[in-house]
Design a protein that fits this description.
Layout: H1 3-65, H2 72-128, H3 135-187, H4 189-217, H5 220-224, H6 227-241, E1 246-252, H7 260-281, E2 285-292, E3 296-303, H8 310-316, H9 325-334, E4 338-343, E5 349-356
Parallel strand pairs: 1-2
Antiparallel strand pairs: 2-3, 3-5, 4-5
Helix pairs in contact: 1-2, 1-3, 2-3, 3-4, 3-9, 6-7
C-alpha cells in the first residue's frame, strides 16, 4: 500500500470519528435546548408552589392560635394540605435540580466533544498532508477519551440522582417529622415522645445512608490507608448490604501502599465489578483474589451467577453509558495493564485484570 492510499484511508477513518462526534454533539445541543425549556417550566411551578406554601404556613400559624376551638376535621385538612404542598414542592425542586444536573453534565460532555472535534480536525488535515505518522493511535485515543469522559459524567449524574432520591428525600422527611414533634410537645407529650423515638431512628438511618454515599464517592481511607484496607472494608459492607450474596476476599503478597493512580483505578474497577455482580448476575457467591507482586497487582473476581455472552456484551457495550466493559478496558489499558472477561450463559463469570507499577 503506497503512502497516498494509506493517507486517504486514514483521512476516511478520521472523517468517521469526527462525523460521529459531530452527530452526538448536535444531538446534545438539541437536548440542552429541551432541558432549558423544562427547567424554565419547572422553576415557574416551584415559584407558584412556594407562594402556596407560604400561604398555608400562615394558615397553620393562625390555626395554632385557635386550635382548641377548631373542628378536628378542619385541623386535619389544613395539615394534609400543608404536607401535600411541601411534598409537591420538594419533588418539583428535586426535578429542577436533576434537570440542572443533567444540563451541567451535557454541557461538560459537549465541551469535551467540541475539543476533540476541533483537535482531530486539525490532525485530520495533517494526516491528509502526510504530517501525522501516529494517525491510528490518535483515533484510538480519541475514541477512548470520549468513552471515558462520557462514562465519568454519567456516573456523576447517577450519583446526584441517588443523593436526591435517598438522603435528600430522607432529610426533608426529617424536617417534617421534627415540625410534628415540635407541635405535639405542648398538646400531647406522650405522643410527642413516641414521635421523637421514630425521628431518632430515621436520623440514624439517614446518617448511615450518607456514610454509604460518601464511601462510594471517595472513601477517605483510600488516601489514608491504601487500596487493600479500603477493599476489605468495602467488601465487608457490600456483603452486609447484600445478605444473600456471600463474599470471600483473599489477599496474597506483601500489603503495601501503591501509586495513588493505581490504587484509585483498582478500587473503582473492583467497585464496578462487584456492583455488576449484585445488580445483574443473580449470584449467591463471589470470590475476590488479589495478588501483590514486586512490580504489579493482579485481581480476580469470580461469581456463580447467570453469566453472559462476552462477544455480545462487547458489541453492546458502546451503547452503555456507565462504568461498563469498555470503560474498564480503556482505564486498565491506559495504565498499561490488561483485563479479560471469561463467561458463558448459565456458567458464572470470571474477570481478571492486572496493573503494573514501579
Amino acid at each position: 500500500m503506497d503512502a497516498e492510499t494509506m493517507n486517504t484511508e486514514q483521512a476516511l477513518t478520521f472523517a468517521e470519528v469526527i462525523d460521529a462526534a459531530e452527530t452526538e454533539y448536535q444531538q446534545i445541543q438539541n437536548e440542552l435546548r429541551e432541558i432549558a425549556m423544562l427547567i424554565r417550566q419547572s422553576s415557574d411551578e416551584v415559584e407558584k408552589l412556594s407562594q402556596r406554601n407560604a400561604q398555608i404556613s400562615n394558615k397553620l400559624r393562625l390555626m395554632e392560635s385557635s386550635i382548641d376551638s377548631m373542628p378536628r376535621e378542619d385541623i386535619q385538612e389544613i395539615y394534609r394540605n400543608a404536607q401535600d404542598t411541601q411534598n409537591r414542592l420538594f419533588m418539583m425542586r428535586g426535578q429542577v435540580e436533576q434537570l440542572q444536573g443533567k444540563q451541567q453534565y451535557l454541557e461538560r460532555y459537549a465541551n469535551h466533544l467540541r475539543y476533540i472535534i476541533d483537535n482531530y480536525r486539525r490532525q485530520s488535515l495533517a494526516a491528509t498532508n502526510g504530517d501525522s505518522p501516529n494517525t491510528t493511535a490518535n483515533i484510538t485515543a480519541a475514541s477512548s477519551m470520549m468513552n471515558i469522559i462520557n462514562a465519568q459524567e454519567q456516573e456523576r449524574l447517577h450519583l446526584s440522582r441517588q443523593l436526591h432520591d435517598g438522603p435528600a428525600q430522607s432529610l426533608t422527611n426529617l424536617i417534617l417529622q421534627a415540625e410534628i414533634v415540635e407541635r405535639l410537645f405542648d398538646k400531647d407529650p406522650s405522643r410527642a415522645q413516641a414521635e421523637l423515638g421514630t425521628l431518632k431512628e430515621a436520623v440514624n438511618e439517614t446518617f448511615q445512608k450518607i456514610r454509604e454515599y460518601i464511601f462510594q464517592l471517595r472513601p477517605m481511607m483510600l488516601d489514608d490507608l491504601g487500596v487493600i484496607p479500603t477493599l476489605k472494608q468495602y467488601v465487608q459492607e457490600f456483603e452486609n448490604k447484600h445478605e444473600k450474596l456471600a463474599c470471600n476476599l483473599l489477599v496474597s503478597g506483601t500489603e503495601r501502599r501503591l501509586p495513588p493512580h493505581i490504587e484509585v483505578t483498582v478500587f473503582r474497577v473492583m467497585q464496578a465489578l462487584l456492583n455488576n455482580v449484585a445488580e445483574h448476575a443473580h449470584a449467591t457467591q463471589v470470590s475476590i483474589n488479589i495478588e501483590l507482586h514486586r512490580d504489579r497487582i493482579t485481581a480476580n473476581v469470580s461469581d456463580n451467577g447467570n453469566g453472559f455472552d462476552v462477544r455480545e456484551a462487547l458489541e453492546e457495550a458502546p451503547k452503555q453509558k456507565h462504568m461498563g466493559i469498555i470503560s474498564m478496558q480503556e482505564q486498565i489499558t491506559m495504565l498499561h495493564g490488561e483485563i479479560s472477561f471469561d463467561s458463558m450463559v448459565g456458567q458464572g463469570t470470571t474477570v481478571t485484570f492486572w496493573l503494573p507499577f514501579d
